[in-house]
Every structure is written in structure tokens, then in C-alpha cells.
Amino acid sequence: MYQKSPISIMFLTLLALATTLPSLVQSQTTRVGFYSNSCPKAESIVTQTVQKHFTSTPSIAPGLLRMHFHDCFVQGCDASVLLNGANTEKTAGPNLGLRGWEVIDDAKTQLEAACPGVVSCADILALAARDSVVLTKGINWKVPTGRLDGRVSLASETNNLPGFRDSVDVQKTKFQTFGLNTQDLVTLVGGHTIGTSACQFFRYRLYNFTTTGNGADPTINPSFVPQLRALCPQAGDAAKRVNLDTGSAARFDATFFTNLKNGRGILESDQKLWTDASTKSLVQRFLGVRGLQALNFNVEFGRSMVKMSTIGVKSATNGEIRRICSAIN
Could you read off the pLDDT of 201-220 as tens digits, one per residue? Predict the structure, then answer.
């Protein structure tokens, strides 16, 4: 029986290493506790920074959550949304209303002082989004870290972002592109339980939407229309902000889905989650409708956020640890 010599075994071993090491070097995986040795206080620094800003400006919580979502849907979760410059993502229409930039910059400054060149801006954003949910009485979850920051940011690619007029089918397609299913879609849209929208993104639903009835979108509860019209007059301030979750805008909970059931969704794309049969059943499960297997919104939100946060994680060949979050090194 033929036996390999020690030399041939060594050669095969070295050959195996030679073929696998490049892929290991070029790939970047995330895991919980990535900075436990390299920067042990990384997560606490981010948490304390978000908490400090939230105390004076509570509206940064939904802002940071939305920023992380917008980041992940363009170029992946790589902090490309933070880059300054002409025609970057930050300059695109969907991102002009984002807020919380100063929170990320503050955390980055502190982290660079504590652990220079170690913690990515992409990870700061993922952690800050989680902390924002916790500060608004939502669930806590463990955030995998170890992302690298991207070097590309193009305003033209923000078309990937779900839009306020999108049908459920269009929303599904946009989510499926990134490996997110219909349950992830409904769950993550539930993040609208905190935050606001400008009148310009839904006022068209209130006036001359139809030629019958009160002229408003028929999926809006008729008793809710006068309230919305008072907040957003037809010729009023288009930039005025209105709560997306009426009655519970400052608390991360499932009342957003109750509002959809009652025809009180602010954005057309949100309300369609109730009128479309393929998503309605998931909304009902979050509401605990009898006869359906109940879903815990907070628990599922944490799971879907972790899933989303793995989109497009950069490798060593196309990523870096930025020294400042608004510019590549």
C-alpha cells in the first residue's frame, strides 16, 4: 500500500494553505464581541455617546435607526452614507432628512482617542441604531461587529432604497435583493414606530387622491383625514414633520401595526402592508390575532436587524477603518 512521504505531506499542506489564506485575508466576517480584546470599551463608548445626545435631542434615535437602514441598502453596511462630497449618498433626496451625523462623529472621535484605527464607522452606526431602539424602550440585542468602511458612495445608487409610494411587490423585490424575506420587510418597516415624516411625503394622499368621497386615499380611516389635513394643509409647509406612529411615536412598540389595521398609516407604502394579503397576515401576527401564530415584534426586530446588518460587509480589498467617518483615508 502506497504511503505519502513526510515531504509530500508537507508539500500538500503548504499548497492547501497557499490556496486558502488569500480568501481568509480578503474576507471579513462579523461576530459578537469583535472588539473585546482590541478595544474593550468600544461598545460602551458608543452607547454612552448616543445616550448623551438622546437626552438633549430625543429625535436622534429614529434618525440613527433610519441612517443605518439607508446605509445598508446602498453599497451594504459600510458607512458609505456618512461620506461627504459631491454626488455622494448623503446628497441624495432620500437622505437629505437624515439626522444624527454629529452623534457618529462624536463617538468616532472618542474611539480614535481610546483605540486609534481600530473601530469602523460602519460598526459605530450599527451599534448606535441598536442603542437608539433601547433608549426608546425597545429590546436590546447583541450586535455582530467587525465591519470595514467602504470607499464608494454614489447618490445614484440610492434608488435601491424603498420609497414611500412603493407597492408591496416593489418593496419585496428591494428587500429580496439583499436576502431579506417578507417577514423581514414587515418587521423592519415596523421601525417606523418611532420617528416622523415630512408632509411632502404623504400629503398627496389627503387631497384630490380620488374624485369620490372626501377626495382622500380611501385606505385612510375617514375619521383620521381631518386630523392629517389640519397638520398638513394643502398649501402648508411641506417640510413640517408628523409622527409616523400616532399616539406612540416616542416608544418602540407594536402600536404602529395597530395603526395600520385602523387605517392610520401615514405613508402609503406603510398602509399597503395591511391592504396587501401577503403582508397583512404578518401584521396580524404581530398584533396577536386569534388563530394565527403570534410574533413578538421586539424580538423579531432584533433578529431582522442582525440579518440586515450583514449585507455587503466589505473585505480587506475594498474596505478600511476610516480615521474620520466623513472621508476615506
Answer: 999 999 999 988 899 999 99
